[in-house]
Automatic annotation (TrEMBL):
Similarity remark: Belongs to the ferredoxin--NADP reductase type 2 family.
Name of the molecule in the record: Ferredoxin--NADP reductase
Gene3D superfamilies according to UniProt: FAD/NAD(P)-binding domain
Enzyme class at the top of the EC tree: oxidoreductase
The enzyme's E.C. designation: 1.18.1.2
Natural source organism: Pontibacter toksunensis
Length: 337
């Protein structure tokens, strides 16, 4: 079991969770950030990385993906640690007021303060309706590529027509023993240059591109051995596969947060606007996940909430110790060792 001890555990590595690391770091508090997705950035990385944003103070225009890169750079001096690709399942409050969080993959995080920056909830894969699919989850069926090396010299079938399916088809074609991309249409939703690259890889024989078709069955013993693809002409074709990776997008679900004893209203966590604390002392909720009168689901509102949260959390982590607010120009950015 992987055990991490930190001052603040931030659930959610979207823009607001990342900026919370900065605000906490200014007050010399250490953060560990957990996200169910394998990369940081939340909605900005997952839904609209190439969209320009016009309402970030000081940036007349910035691409969502670039804002996330800048936030990563801004928090680097505070050396946050990350657990990515793991959803936080449980939250337990101990008698001394501290917390233990557990992820779905067995990581345990001990902390003094919990900050939920969970956005719309954790993004869950949209699963195709295929009988027995869940039987092979973890044994050949996966919905995310966490480490591409895992697929080296394997036979992989990908399904989907968006950016993830195209990008991973291109990347994995150089690693896998055999790779097929099955797509129900003839045109792709993803970037045209990626679609062109996939077609040229198929023409070079480096990728098996199967259009106007669907994966309809999965087969094997304890592990996945093959999938059945229903071709355009209604003929079923079996393809031997060590892995089947359906990439049909992600849907946000409030998920496990629902069972943590938090006061909820319309799928959001009710907070006190003085410091964005929740009904559980030591647990804060910032960004899209919270609700209060006048709430706006905007990045800049989440940034403000992160600042107030950090000053309140400071009092829990440093009881009796006074912090005199100074500007970053006075204090500078003092790197955490
Ligand atoms: P998110 O970005 O949603 O990140 C939350 C993260 O928490 C996710 O990565 C999720 O996987 C993770 N998470 C949740 N639960 C768990 C769990 N149990 N365990 C582990 N991880 C978990 N806002 C603007 O200000 N300006 C804009 O121009 C703008 N344009 C937008 C355009 C689109 C198309 C969309 C969809 C939104 C736009 N928004 C915009 C809104 C903005 O994206 C959100 O306000 C912002 O993403 C909220 O950030 P966040 O960090 O609170 O949450």
């Amino acid at each position: 079991m992987n055990r991490i001890t930190t001052d603040i555990c931030i659930v959610g590595a979207g823009p607001v969770g990342l900026f919370a690391v900065f605000e906490a770091g200014l007050l010399k508090m250490r953060c560990h950030v957990v996200d169910a997705l394998p990369a940081v950035g939340g909605q900005l990385s997952e839904i609209y990385p190439k969209k320009p944003i016009y309402d970030i103070p000081g940036f007349p225009e910035i691409l969502a993906g670039d804002l996330i890169k800048n936030l990563e750079q801004q928090i680097a001096p505070f050396h946050p640690t990350f657990t990515l690709g793991e959803r936080v399942e449980d939250l337990e409050k101990l008698e001394d007021g501290s917390f233990i969080l557990n992820t779905v993959d067995g990581t345990e995080i001990a902390c003094k303060v919990v900050v939920i920056a969970g956005g719309l909830g954790s993004f869950e894969p949209r699963k195709p309706a295929i009988e027995n699919l869940e039987k092979y989850e973890g044994n050949g069926v996966t919905y995310m590529v966490r480490d591409p090396e895992h697929f080296r010299d394997k036979r992989v079938v990908l399904a989907g027509g968006g950016d993830s399916a195209l990008d991973w088809a291109i990347y994995l074609s150089a690693l896998c023993k055999e790779i097929s991309l099955v797509h129900r249409g003839t045109s792709f939703r993803g970037a045209p240059e990626s679609a062109d690259k996939v077609v040229s890889l198929a023409e070079e024989g480096k990728l098996n591109l199967i259009l106007k078709s669907n994966v309809t069955e999965v087969h094997g013993g304890d592990k996945l051995e093959k999938v059945t693809v229903m071709m355009d002409n209604a003929t079923p074709v079996a393809i031997e596969a060590d892995y089947f990776i359906p990439l049909f997008g992600l849907v946000p679900k409030l998920g496990p947060l629902e069972n943590w004893g938090l006061e909820l209203e319309k799928n959001a966590i009710v907070v006190n606007t003085e410091d964005y604390s929740t009904n559980i002392e030591g647990v804060y909720a910032i960004g899209d996940i919270n609700t209060y009168p006048g709430k706006l689901k905007l990045i800049l509102c989440g940034f403000h909430e992160a600042a107030l949260m950090a000053h309140s959390a400071y009092n829990i982590i440093n009881p009796g110790k006074k912090f005199v607010l100074k500007y970053t120009t006075v204090n500078g950015i003092q790197e955490l060792a």
